[in-house]
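Sample entry (192 residues):
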Amino acid sequence: MEETEAPLPDYGGKEFTILHRTEMAYEFDIEEETGDLVSDAIFRRNQKVGEDYNVDLKFLGVEGSWNVRDIFDKFMTGSIMSNDGSFDVVAGYQACMVTPAMNGMFLNINDIPEIVQSNPWWSEKCTESLTLNKCLFMITGDIAVSMWDGLYCMYFNKTMADDYKIGDLYSLVKEGKWTDQRRLQKLRKIIS
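Predicted structure, serialized as tokens:
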């Protein structure tokens, strides 16, 4: 995929604040280079964005781990509803962002020409999946380090799958049949 060039607007040194969960500060709020490869890359990214767009990047952390996600949600919703301008962008749990998006609290990213979704740092598959009726209220990609460190994979024992006559799991997944209840019951026997 080829990088799409877009004119870089000059925001005249205005503050641009990213609201994030305090537990995820490592994705954004890096104050200096420390020698850590990922943190230093984030620091340099922030500097480059600040220079290229002439913005003063700020970061606002609010507690929002899964068990206390309501704290983050109430702060975010309250700020948006009061139009207090506390932040410009939200970096939150995707699962928790659906309700505010559907309640009209977020802008349609498709209406923001500065966000060129075809650029390689945006996840094409996520963008496709999150678009509904030509509206896109959430986007992710390389900016979300947690997207990469939160990846999971599933393993299975081919011999046991053959013994239980489950069939070719690769084909079942590709055909969308892997959630068949009878097969799930057999898989549960293997797992337990």
